[in-house]
Amino acid sequence: MVEQHLNRVFHALSNPTRRAILGRLASGQTTVGDLSRPLPLSFAGVSKHLGVLERAGLVTREARGRERVCRLNPAALRDAQDWLEFHTRFWTERLNALGALVETGADEEGERR
Amino acid sequence: MVEQHLNRVFHALSNPTRRAILGRLASGQTTVGDLSRPLPLSFAGVSKHLGVLERAGLVTREARGRERVCRLNPAALRDAQDWLEFHTRFWTERLNALGALVETGADEEGERR
DNA sequence: GTGTTGTTCAACCATGTGGTTGAGGGTAGC
DNA sequence: GCTACCCTCAACCACATGGTTGAACAACAC
C-alpha cells in the first residue's frame, strides 16, 4: 500500500539525524561504524535510525565480512516526491483559481456551507 | 531555522489522517466541523491534527464568528519539496557516476576505508 | 436572558520514538 | 584456539504522539 510507504518515508525524513545520515550516504556507501563515528550517538542508536531508513526503503544494508555496508536507494523517494509535487501544483492552481473567482465577484465560501 | 521547519513539515505529512485533511482542504477552505464530520475521529482529535499542520505552516486557522475557517498554505511545502528534489537529483547523479566508475574499473569503495 | 452550537483546552491513556546500556553473535587477525 | 572488532538485539527510560472524554468559552438563535 502506497499510503503506508508514504507514512514511513515522511516519518523517516522528519528526523534531522536521519537526514544527516542520508546526506552522508550521498557521498558514497559506508559502514555503520564510519557512519556513527561523527554522530553524537551511540552505535546502537545509529543502528536503530538505519532500521527506520531501511524500513522506509531509503537505504539498504548488506553484510560484508563483519561489517555492514549501507547504500542509498533514491528510488524510494519517488512516491514522496510525486505526492508533494502533485499537491503543491494542484493546491497552487486551485488557490489561483479561487483568487480569480473572488476577483470576479463569485463567493467560493458558499461551496462548503 | 530551516532544519526545524523541515522536521515539522515532514512529520506533519507522515500521518495519513493529516494528509487526508490536506487533501480535503485542497478542494476549498472549510470549518473544523465540516472537516471532522467525515473522519472517524473526535472533534478534539481533528483539532489536534490541525494544530500540528498549523505549527508546520501548512494550514492557517482564522476565527469567523464561532467557527474556525481552515485554509491551505502551499508555500510551506516549498522547503520540503526543494529538499526532496535536490536530494533525489543529487543522489541519482552520484549513483550514476559511481556506476560509471565501477564499469571503467575504478573502485569507489576505497574512498571510505 | 436561556439554550444550542463550534471549538479549544486540560487531563488522561496506550503506544511509539529516540536514546541509553549490556549481552551476544559473527568475522578477522594472530 | 583466543582476542579484538563490528554490529544487532533486548531491555529499559523519558518523552512525544494519537487518541479519548469532559469542562469551558464564545457566538449564534430564540
Which features characterize this protein?
homodimer; 113 residues; alpha+beta; Arc Repressor Mutant, subunit A; three-stranded antiparallel beta sheet; 5 helices; elongated; disordered C terminus; DNA-binding
Task: Give a verbal description of the structure.
2 copies of one chain form a homodimer. Chain A is of the alpha+beta class and 113 residues long. Helix content of chain A is 60%, strand content 12%. Chain A has a domain at 2-76: Arc Repressor Mutant, subunit A (Orthogonal Bundle), CATH 1.10.10. Chain A has helices spanning 2-13, 16-26, 32-36, 43-55, 77-103, and strands spanning 30-31, 59-64, 67-72. In chain A, a hairpin with a 2-residue loop joins strand 2 (59-64) and strand 3 (67-72). In chain A, helix 1 runs antiparallel to helix 4. Chain A is elongated and about 70 Å long. The two termini of chain A are 34 Å apart. In chain A, 24% of the residues are buried. The structure holds a DNA duplex (30 and 30 nucleotides).
Brief synopsis:
The structure is a homodimer. Chain A is α+β, with helices and mostly antiparallel strands and about 110 residues long.
What is the architecture of the domain at 2-76 in chain A at the second tier of CATH?
A: Orthogonal Bundle
Question: Which structural class matches the secondary elements of chain A?
Answer: alpha+beta
The portion of residues forming beta strands of chain A comes to 5-15%
What CATH calls the topology of the domain at 2-76 in chain A is Arc Repressor Mutant, subunit A
User: What share of residues of chain A is helical?
Assistant: 55-70%
The greatest interface between two protein chains, and residues involved on each side, is: A-B, 40 and 41 residues
Low-confidence stretches of chain A: 107-113
Rg on CA atoms of chain A, Å: 21 Å
Query: What is the tally of helical segments of chain A?
Result: 5
For the report, how would you describe the main beta sheet of chain A? Answer: 3 strands, antiparallel
Query: What is the tally of beta strands of chain A?
Result: 3
pLDDT averaged over residues of chain A: 86
CATH superfamily of the domain at 2-76 in chain A: Winged helix-like DNA-binding domain superfamily/Winged helix DNA-binding domain
Oligomer: homodimer
